[in-house]
């Protein structure tokens, strides 16, 4: 019997040199688009002093939404043949251009008039999560019009519908593991360190979460960083010790060292890479089981 096309190992997309190159090109194009938008619309107003889109809600959020959706389309056009979420991945890489242009969160804390800054950052994180969801929905519109193929066809995993309880459990594991990793990795507010800390923590959280419950689609993993960032800002707002000297205190101080754009950008990148790698491992395991079943004599 011939295997269905979507389970044929010859049709699986492996992250070979061509695949990595296409994803890199898509990410660089999105990064350049956001960098250009940041200069054109003066986001942020004072470079190097941190960036919060809540200071320019009309321009900042609207420009970010429009450029993000355009980058999802461009990323899908360039690398959609590699992964379903290639457009979201590349657009998330573009968000880092805004973060890097603004600098670290220290500048924001030094110029803030009150700890209300952290509540504004929590709201901004949720709004960025909504922008991510808009980009994700755009991918599904492309899929429904048969312009974008789903994960199962790209990686050969036979997706089985999962109950909502299992999906929420996976999301919870992602949040817990990422939070613990952030507390260990985000030891300073240096921009490079917090970006790496967010991306790596999201990656590790996704690996652990997918191991506990291999659910799909990817939204159940990349929403984890948004939740972690929101929780961190809210807890710091409730207990704002040290904010006036740009040195937050408390058990969860590490969670407010990244900017919301870092959670939405680096967090999404790390979560998607963890999701793709986990599904590749699952596909390999399923292929090995089928090979074993074919080679084993019937009992």
Please, could you describe this protein's structure?
The chain has 299 residues and is an all-alpha fold. The protein has one domain (11-285). It contains 10 helices and no strands. It has helices at 17-40, 57-79, 86-102, 106-111, 116-144, 151-155, 164-185, 191-212, 219-238, 260-295. Helix 2 (57-79) packs across helix 3 (86-102), helix 5 (116-144) packs antiparallel against helix 9 (219-238) and helix 8 crosses helix 9 (219-238). The model is unreliable at 1-14 (pLDDT under 50).
The computed structural class is mainly alpha
Helix content: 55-70%
Work out the strand percent. Answer: under 5%
Radius of gyration, Cα only, in angstroms? 20 Å
Number of helices: 10
Give the low-pLDDT segments: 1-14
What is the terminal separation in angstroms?
20 Å
Number of strands: 0
Shape: globular
Give helix and strand order, one letter per element, not per position. Answer: HHHHHHHHHH
Overall pLDDT metric: 85
- How would you characterize the largest beta sheet? none
Number of domains: 1
